[in-house]
Amino acid sequence: MDVKAVRKHFPILDQKVNGHPLVYLDSAATSQKPDVVIEAMDSYYRKINANIHRGVHTLGSLATDAYEEAREKVRRFINAGSTEEVIFTRGTTTSLNTVAYSYARAFLKEGDEIVITPMEHHANLIPWQQAAKATGATLKYIPLQKDGTIDLEDVRKTVTERTKIVAMAHVSNVLGTINPVKEVAAIAHEKGAVMVVDGAQSAPHMKVDVRALDVDFYAFSSHKMIGPTGIGVLYGKKALLEKMEPFETGGEMIDVVDLYESTWKQLPWKFEAGTMPIAEAIGLAAAIDFLEQIGLEAIHDHEIRLANYALERLSAIDGLEIYGPRKRVGLITFNLKGVHAHDVATALDNLGIAVRAGHHCAQPLMKWLCVPATARASFYVYNTEEDVDRLYEGLLKTKEFFADVL
Ligand code: 7TS
């Protein structure tokens, strides 16, 4: 993979921040966008902007075609069996809430169980808490091992005949753990439960095949995979989506509306109420083209190499604690002893290095780590070893600075 050539497509990276060349290490929060994505959206607005699935004029049908082609591109990207199983949403959070409202609230009852893990992003935790409260179901947790992984034996012990839903991140946004979702899905299915996967941190970074994983629902966001904000995907198995009622209603998701009763369009439109993010779908399609031209395997290998290099360099810093397992994606979460993560991130920002600090929308996981917050550097297709070197040097400077102050 030629990272220098890749970087040329990301105009935002070519700038100074606080007097230093920008090092962007916050792609797990949101990724940067290549010129082809920006141009695809620009071209849509300049040439074919119109609402979709409404009426017959030429621009309307061109926009509809582009939007539906984007859906087909997403289908291929995750190897779904049909475009009926690919629903556009606002992002991972909305995708997961759709399952929690339209599936869990409709089909769960008192005595049923929902099983998740303590490493979940709030988007894959609070919807289940709320669904459990609304239905009387019990929320149960698969315990974490010391290194922040899960053990399949624990999964077998936690998932029972009463379990109706198992929901889990494919990749943790804090620890970088890659969860064995295929194996967990098999256990869930043995017990008659459905498997919901939060793919926000996996779809951008590895080849995902929803049929090979045999998961029932899979959610992800465009903005973390070099696409625009405001759009994401919910993959769901057709048989499940068909028996679910829409999460939102109104607009073109209907078939027939009468004064007191209405019926819905077929899949996937039944779940797409209101005017959809059309330019964003087209931008997402351009993002998928860009990622596939490089190859998801090559991207994954590149990030693993960077993560290993960063682990090696950062481990040499005395007083730097790194969290999470050895086997991980391109993401490193850490704390500098005696310095709050926000101060570390601010000091790095002064050197032009963007990392995220805070609880990363995973407060139960912070509790498990016994820390109020962490700093996190996350890598993507455009990051280089020099970026890791700048992070290393920045952390040494930060450490020296606070050693003088404290
Ligand atoms: N699930 C995981 C695992 C995530 O990392 C995120 C966002 C979400 C769900 C929610 O995605 P959204 O697109 O609906 O907002 N994670 C982060 C992060 O780690 N830092 O900022 C956002």
Number of domains: 2
Rounded Rg: 22 Å
Named CATH topology of the largest domain: Aspartate Aminotransferase, domain 2
State the helical fraction. 40-55%
Instruction: Examine the secondary-structure arrangement and name the CATH architecture of the largest domain.
Output: 3-Layer(aba) Sandwich
CATH class label of the largest domain: Alpha Beta
Average pLDDT, rounded to a whole number, is: 97
Name the CATH superfamily assignment of the largest domain.
Answer: Type I PLP-dependent aspartate aminotransferase-like (Major domain)
What small molecules does the structure contain?
ligand 7TS
User: Could you tell me the strand content as a percent range?
Assistant: 15-25%
Number of helices: 14
Write the SSE topology:
Blueprint: H1 3-7, E1 16-17, E2 20-21, E3 23-24, H2 35-48, H3 58-78, E4 86-89, H4 92-107, E5 113-116, H5 126-135, E6 138-141, H6 152-158, E7 163-169, H7 181-190, E8 194-198, H8 210-213, E9 217-221, E10 232-236, H9 238-243, E11 254-257, E12 262-264, H10 278-294, H11 296-315, E13 320-323, E14 331-336, H12 341-350, E15 353-354, E16 356-358, H13 363-369, E17 374-378, H14 385-405
Parallel strand pairs: 3-15, 5-6, 5-7, 7-8, 8-9
Antiparallel strand pairs: 1-2, 4-10, 9-10, 11-12, 13-14, 14-17, 16-17
Ligand 7TS binds at residues 28-29, 91-93, 121, 123-124, 169, 173, 198, 200-201, 221, 356, 360-361.
